[in-house]
Structure formats: structure tokens, C-alpha cells
Amino acid sequence: MSHRLTQIHRYLEAPVKENDVQLALLRALIVELGIRSPTASDLPRTLTSARKLLKAEVHINIKEYIAIRNKGQTAIRQILKPNKKALRKDIQKKGNRASLKWVKNHGLQVLLITCFV
Predict the structure, then answer these.
(1) d(Cα 13, Cα 62) in Å, to the nearest integer?
(2) pLDDT in tens, 22-50
(3) Cys bridge to 28: 4, 58, 66, 113, which one at CB 3.0-4.6 A?
């Protein structure tokens, strides 16, 4: 398991609210989701920039992501949606929404979208 995968796994098991830990989590998510490479010089340096990048470029069902994340980046890329509208439609069609409380407790609220079902 790569360092970034281990970092995300540890965080999901025991979330920490410290800014530097949250930034490390978001940067690890950016790499795991294939938005930037681990050596990219343009990896976000602040929580705000990391959140903005994820909100703009990542459209993924959190429940599916958690279920499939151990299967590798290729599997994760297959469940990414092209935009928020496609993600909303998918969630409404399948009805597989993640628990808001669970998502917030595990620090993944950056992946949330507004979805009325």
C-alpha cells in the first residue's frame, strides 16, 4: 500500500481536526483520485486551495469511493463522474447516498454536493 493510501486509511479510521493533517489528507485524495501526480509542483499548499481544487474537479459518489478505493486508481477513475449534474443523477437513480454524519465525521465533506432526492 502506498504512503498516500496508508495516510488516507489511517485518517478515515481516526479523523484528526488539525489543519496540517487535513491538508495532508486532501493532498493525498488529490493524488489518489488522479487529479495531480504526487510530484506535481502545483499540489495545493493551503486547505482552501485544496478544497477548491477537489470541489471543482472531483465528482464522485462517496459511498462508492469508500467501497472501491482499495482496488486501485483505475477502479476509482471508473466511478468518477464528468460533472456535478451527472453525479446528482447517478445518486438519485441509485439512491446510494452516504450518511452526512459519517462523511463529516471522517473529514470527507469536501466531496459532498447538494442533491435533493
Answers:
(1) 15
(2) 898 899 899 989 899 888 788 999 999 99
(3) 4
Q: How far apart are CA 6 and CA 64, in angstroms?
A: 19
Among candidate residues 77, 40, 35, the one with its CA nearest the CA of residue 55: 35
Q: What 3-state class would DSSP assign to 11?
A: helix
Residue 106 to residue 100: CA distance in whole angstroms: 10
The whole-angstrom separation of Cα 3 and Cα 9 is 10
Could you report the per-residue pLDDT of 2-27, keeping only the tens digit for each?
Answer: 666 677 777 677 667 778 888 988 99
Single pTM value for the model: 0.79
